[in-house]
Structures are given as structure tokens and as C-alpha cells.
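Work Package 3 (structural annotation) set out to generate three-dimensional models for the target panel prioritized at the project kickoff. During this period the team completed the workflow that converts sequence records into C-alpha cells, so that structures can be stored uniformly alongside our sequence database. As a representative example, we reproduce one entry of 222 residues exactly as it appears in the project archive.
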Amino acid sequence: MTDLEERFRLTRARLADAAGDHPVRLLAVGKTQPAAALRALAALGQRAFGENYVQEALVKQRELADLALEWHLIGPLQSNKCKEAATHFDWVQSIDRHKLIPLLGKFRPAERAPLNLLVQVNIDDEASKSGCAPAGTEALAAAVSAEPRLRLRGLMAIPQPDADPARRRDAFRRMRDLFEKLRSRHPEIDTLSMGMSDDYPLAIAEGANLVRIGSALFGPRG
């Protein structure tokens, strides 16, 4: 068994243990990883991959065009990259301002299914982090819902790193509460994306149903 196979097996086992009867999707984060590493993971059964940068993702998508993969943009999106994001991704998880929404709707190809979008929330009000304030979530969600070529799916967050699990868990709990409030007005939403390699069991315990895992799968970045 290769190191990748072992990490994939352990990650899925740990995820299943944390999830119990609660379905949770695994998004493999390929930031800085070569296309060959993603191909190897796809050969083990992984189909959903997340990328932080549009240009890096496009290179990998061309190299992996023979595979039926699902591509998520999880990093900040610049308005001048909206056409490429709308054309080449299945999901954009980093919607944090109104300007992006009509551009993505305009550029989503008519022959493709609507683009799945998550509103990114800066749940801990970090100056260095992307995401809208919690109070701005509903306005962005409403703007997405108004675009016929876009599909509102839910929320995403990257809570502030904290050595205290209780404080991390509190941030995840606040995201879950925000998600439930949003779902009362938008019952179609179904995705709460939060939790990464070092904290996804805590995120799952607080309601995450999509976790973004990089180093636990591919090993530490060089």
C-alpha cells in the first residue's frame, strides 16, 4: 500500500467515525499538488477536488480532462477571473461580495448545469481573511438565488485557527446556527462546508457536511 493509499484510507475511516449516520462529503484540496497526485487519488475513488487558484486549477483540469471529476474553487475569486471560474468549475465556495454574482451568472455556459455557489462567511471577523460578515449572508444568498444560471447551495467558512478546541468548536457552532437561519428562508440549501485536515472531526460534530482536506491526504506541503 502506498503512502497516499494509506492516508486516504485513514482519512475516510476517521471521517466515517466522526460522521456516524450524518452523510459528509470529502473534498480533496490539491493546492500546490501536481496533477499526477490528483490522478492517483482519483484512481482510489476520489472524485471531488478543491483548488485555491483559478490558473493552477486550469492547468490540472487540462491534464486530467480524461477523468470525470468535480471541481470546486475554494480560494478568493477576483472579478477578472469570473469568466474562467464560471466556465471551468462545478462549484465556487468563496462568494463574499455582490460584484461576483452577476458576473458568474453572465458567464456560466448555457449548456452546463447551473453553477453551485456557497457564500463564504468570515465568522471570526479576521482582517486578513476573505468572507462576508455574518450579517451580510442573507443579502448575498438572495442575490445568488435571483440568478437563473447559479444555484445557491449553502455556506462556507474557515474559522480562525485556535489551539483551544472549545473555541474552534464555538466558531463551527455559530456557523451551523447561521446556516439553519439561512435555510429557514432558503430551504433549498444543503451544504455547510467547514473543517480542514486538523479540525474536521470538530466541524462534523457541529453540522459540517462537506470537509476540505489537503495535507491529511497528500502529506505536508513542501
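The chain has a mean pLDDT of 96.
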